[in-house]
């Protein structure tokens, strides 16, 4: 199955209930120390000389944060020694809802030679299993909203890291009604950032991260939502999406949204059995069907 790039800011469907656990930090004092420092754990057990620090960068290349004054840096002052491995863990407490936006974003700079490298991993089960985000992105259905980064060598200024993990945050079935291949099995998701230097003794600054944002939220109207009102087929679809209704009523309302929250189509007196999808681009969409004061939401895929 072909995968589609998701860019999600799911501000669609009006709702009366709302859940979120998203958070962001620019590492600046005193707010970071008061509210977010307990989410970050420097691994001094594996490496007592772990270099990760939060503070103002005063190095050769790293001289300012993305948003001053502070950033997360492999040593805010000193260059890195050869043959060093430094890891830091970020803990996130999930907020469970039936359908989630789940996205990680930050800005970063790298300064190293071609074999110095950063490694990013995620654990869906509080640290029992670790998955390499960059090398296993296809296997575990990660989607890049910006170009997939390369965490080796040196960057030219600040670069964007923008990862959608929508399939990790959703309890809806996957493509064609089959389950998504992996679910988060714990209320705690861990991210591990590791920077490794080679044996070259040329001084380097390493890895710097700033303006980290973990987006984790959902919307819904649980009191009046009934997803058994309709079924849809085929899914994925090409030219037509057929809608099978339990019963017909006088008031039927159809809306189609894309994953950026844009309303693409609506029909306020819907009496048909299908909607035309041949002009929709390949991608994932949400169908909202309303029947009086009850509604259903169905996710469907267009693949031409």
CATH hierarchy: architecture of the largest domain: Sandwich
Q: Beta fraction of the residues?
A: 35-45%
> How many discrete domains?
2
Class by alpha and beta content: mainly beta
Structure explained in plain terms:
By secondary structure, the chain is mainly beta. The chain has two domains: 17-220, Sandwich (Jelly Rolls); 230-302, Sandwich (Immunoglobulin-like), CATH 2.60.40.3080. Helix content is 3%, strand content 40%. Strands 1, 2, 4, 5, 7, 10, 11 and 13 form an eight-stranded antiparallel beta sheet that branches. It has a five-stranded antiparallel beta sheet with strand order 3-6-12-8-9, with no helix packed on it. It has a four-stranded antiparallel beta sheet with strand order 17-16-19-20, with no helix packed on it. A hairpin with a 2-residue loop joins β19 and β20 (294-302).
């Amino acid at each position: 199955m072909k995968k589609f790039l998701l860019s999600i800011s799911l501000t669609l469907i009006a709702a009366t209930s709302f859940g979120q656990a998203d958070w962001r930090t620019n590492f600046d004092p005193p707010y970071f120390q008061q509210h977010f420092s307990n989410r970050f754990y420097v691994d001094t057990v594996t490496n007592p000389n772990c270099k990760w620090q939060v503070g103002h960068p005063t190095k050769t290349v790293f001289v300012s944060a993305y948003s001053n004054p502070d950033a997360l840096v492999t040593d805010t002052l000193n260059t890195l020694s050869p043959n060093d491995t430094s890891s830091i863990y970020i803990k996130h407490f999930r907020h469970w809802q039936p359908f989630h936006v789940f996205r990680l974003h930050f800005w970063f700079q790298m300064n190293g030679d071609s074999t110095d490298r950063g490694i990013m991993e995620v654990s869906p089960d509080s640290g029992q299993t670790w998955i390499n985000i960059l090398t296993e992105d296809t296997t575990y259905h990660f989607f890049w909203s910006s170009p997939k980064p390369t965490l080796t060598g040196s960057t030219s200024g600040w670069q964007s890291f923008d990862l959608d993990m929508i399939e990790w945050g959703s309890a809806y079935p996957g493509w064609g009604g089959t389950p998504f291949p992996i679910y988060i099995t714990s209320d705690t998701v861990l991210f591990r950032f590791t920077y490794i230097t080679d044996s070259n003794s040329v001084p380097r600054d390493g890895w710097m991260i700033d303006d980290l944002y973990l987006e984790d939220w959902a919307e819904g109207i649980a009191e009046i939502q009934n997803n058994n009102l309709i079924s849809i087929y085929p899914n994925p679809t090409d030219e037509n999406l057929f809608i099978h209704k339990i019963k017909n009523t006088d008031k039927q309302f159809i809306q189609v949204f894309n994953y950026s929250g844009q309303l693409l189509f609506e029909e306020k007196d819907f009496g048909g059995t299908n909607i035309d999808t041949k002009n929709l681009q390949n991608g994932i969409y949400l169908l909202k069907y309303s029947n009086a004061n009850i509604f259903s939401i169905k996710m469907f895929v267009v693949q031409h």
